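Sanity check

After download, print the first record. It should look like this:
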Amino acid sequence: MSKIRVSAVQYHLHTIDSFEQFALQSEHYIKTAQEFGAEFVLFPEFFTTQLMSIGDGNGNVLTINDLPDFTDRYRALFSSFAKRTNMHIIGGTHVVRRGDRLYNTAHLFYPDGRIAEQAKLHITPTEVHEWNMAPGDGLQIFETSKGKIAMLTCYDIEFPEIVRMAKAKGADIIFCPSCTDDRHGFYRVRYTSHARAVENQVYVVLTGTVGALPTVDFMRANYGQAAVITPNDIPFPPRGIMVEGELNDDMIVTADLDLELLYQVRERGSVTTWRDRRTDLYTDWS
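Expected structure tokens:
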């Protein structure tokens, strides 16, 4: 079967008092996606920064260096969701520590309990200078029972080369968790997601954080909207938007992706951008 039902969460960030509150909020979205019959559900980038708002019990706010301390609980929680619901969950991104470096890492939770990771490959100046993040060092394509996917986080989607590489390695769907704090950042990610869908004739499933964390530096402002983005050709909506959320609302969107339509437009669409790329002039990767 070539159809895949996907849901994308516009995760509402607000101050919480405990990990249990984070777990209950996450479970609410998981159950909603399950009720819609989703097979994949996408959470946004940096949504686990909500855990920093818990504080240390003495009135002190947690910092980005404290966030990896939640990794084991986060992974156990989302792995249990995936196994219980039989869904593939792209658990947004969570900050993990490797040695003395921090990595902004997308997680794929399989229904059978496996957990796969993709560190963000291109990191923003804020991530470098304020949070001392390190970039990932390789692109992975993930095999699922429904086909091959890639997880490219926010700024990653703004680089055509990496998405072309993902398609050349067989990915038909790019899941893009993002987190943007104003309209400028939001539209950079949104417009380049459309460009990548046109260039590579793939689906892009995109979402972002909404709400605010008043006590967490660099997470006070969020401007977000989920969307399922398609190539711009006759089998798809003219604007290349299968579904989109309401800007900055706490909600979830759901759509069916038909992989067969991708294969059709790659062969005989109005344009055949993937087939017509000039690999004699520029390679997919070296």
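If your output differs, re-run the checksum step. Summary of this record's structure: The chain has one domain: 3-268.
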